[in-house]
Amino acid sequence: MSLEDLRAERIKKLEALREAGVEPYPIASNQSAEITGVTEGFEEFVESGEEIILAGRIMAKRGHGGAVFADLNDGSFAEGDSLADTPEDEKGRRGTIQILFKKDVLGEESHVGFEELVDVGDFIECTGRLFRTERGEKTLEVSSWRMLAKSLRPLPDKWHGLVDPDERFRRRYLDSLMDVAVKKRFITRSRMITAVREFLDDAGYLEVDTPVLQPVYGGASAKPFTTRHNALDMELFLRIAPELYLKKMLVGGFPKVYEVVRNFRNEGIDATHNPEFTNVEFYAAYTDAPKQRKFVEALIRHVVKKVLRGDTVLYDENEINVGADFAVIPYLELFTRFANVQTPEKLSLEEWREVAERLKVEYAPEDGIDKVMDQIYKKTARLQLIQPTFIVDYPATYLPLAKRFPDRYQLVDAFQLVMGGVELVKAFSELNDPIDQAERFAEQDKIIAAGDAEGQPSDEDFVEALEYGMPPAGGVGIGLDRLSMILTDTKNIKEVIYFPTMRPKETK
């Protein structure tokens, strides 16, 4: 049958329910327990002999006549569930229990009603007592049932689910419903973010909020999304980073702040980039990049241990050990080690272009030294950094908000963390010299005027805040989508964003 025919059949059943005086979408359920709790405490429930009320979605029906079995799933999961947990049964599905409908228990009318009017995908409520079948399967014998929500579209085939990746991302609700591994991936992501918050809270950081709509975008080198506020008649930008606002809070007397943020960057979409993504940024007064490196190392260990119950992560067939000391390598040394570039600090823009051409690395005609170097680094070095590695000592022009070394004025005290060939963290000792910051902004304005849409524009309000005084500080940004990719061994950022940005589906 076609989808249209199947939908029409279900609408007939919906009408039959209403004609029989049954409300197919009641306002509430009388559920007395979650299925995961029932299956984990099964023997105690059986010993009590009391009736319980379970609610959930019918995931399968089998049998006919006097006895009909079904699988009921309420979506519940155990505290601490993650990819590290062993599935409860051979189906690997939490929150599922077998239910039995017997004609001699339910009565003719109720039994026939279930057989003829209830489909896979419907939500129902079941009252009954628990027992084990001869095969030992945990089962609820139903004494009465009630419709909670009649589904009008059939679920995907339970054996194949959604095969087309595009359809999986567009209908993630079906993807996670039919594939327990997908659901557990998002449970793991949630556990990860909770673990990050716990670590920061325990370290004395205060969680705060900063604006999503900003009159001047800043805090990162990226092209923003632009919008307009009609009442104020002004142009606004969706946040590309919360950095400048969080540092204003340091000025305002808050020594340790963090924010789990949704950032928006008007950029391309690929395996590690989505225009809307999740970061955590945190800033601490009276510290610097080297101290924050140690802090980040401890944070990563905490998260992995909390989520995966150990010190290792399997990613892309590589075992990554976060229990050992993280490696440290200067940014410029990467070019010598992986691209055979001698004295990289002395090369001109033209010479870097020659290196890029030799290595068949693409770059745009308007790209300056920093962008050409970055493209070379991404192709030659980054993918080879499998074990946790801190890259340090970046050119000052690369990070216009970072503090210079006093004895190496062309470099800034900054680092990135790479694991599994994926950039996870960017951090630096924060620039708090308002004169230097204004000059660095002026240089960025020149870059923007020359055609670089990802330059960081001058923010006079931020410079003014610095003039009131900001303590020395270390700031860190961690890509939570990418970290969840590592923890769940997935290679596409769409796999860890429940609603990724998608091109509108073509209609005929």
CATH domain fold name of one domain: OB fold (Dihydrolipoamide Acetyltransferase, E2P)
CATH architecture of one domain: Beta Barrel
Overall pLDDT level: 93
- Give the total of beta strands: 18
Helical content band: 25-40%
State the gist of this model.
By secondary structure, this protein is an alpha+beta fold. It contains 16 helices and 18 strands. Strands 6-10-11-18-17-16-15-14 form an 8-stranded mixed beta sheet, sandwiched between helices.
Please describe the structure with a list of short key phrases separated by commas or semicolons.
single chain, 508 residues, alpha+beta, OB fold (Dihydrolipoamide Acetyltransferase, E2P), 5-stranded mixed beta barrel
Folded structure, characterized:
It catalyses: tRNA(Lys) + L-lysine + ATP = L-lysyl-tRNA(Lys) + AMP + diphosphate. Homodimer. It is found in: Cytoplasm. Mg(2+) 1 binds at residue 423. The protein has 508 residues and is of the alpha+beta class. Among the domains are: 3-155, Nucleic acid-binding proteins (OB fold (Dihydrolipoamide Acetyltransferase, E2P), Beta Barrel); 328-385, no CATH class. It is built from 16 helices and 18 strands. It has helices spanning 3-19, 35-40, 42-48, 103-106, 108-117, 165-170, 172-178, 180-202, 243-251, 289-308, 331-339, 349-358, 369-380, 434-449, 460-467, 480-488; strands at 52-62, 67-73, 96-102, 123-132, 138-149, 206-207, 213-214, 226-229, 234-238, 256-264, 276-285, 312-315, 318-321, 327-330, 389-395, 411-419, 422-429, 473-479. An 8-stranded mixed β-sheet has the order 6-10-11-18-17-16-15-14, with helices on both faces. Strands 1-2-3-5-4 form a 5-stranded mixed beta barrel. Mean pLDDT is 93; it is low at 88-92.
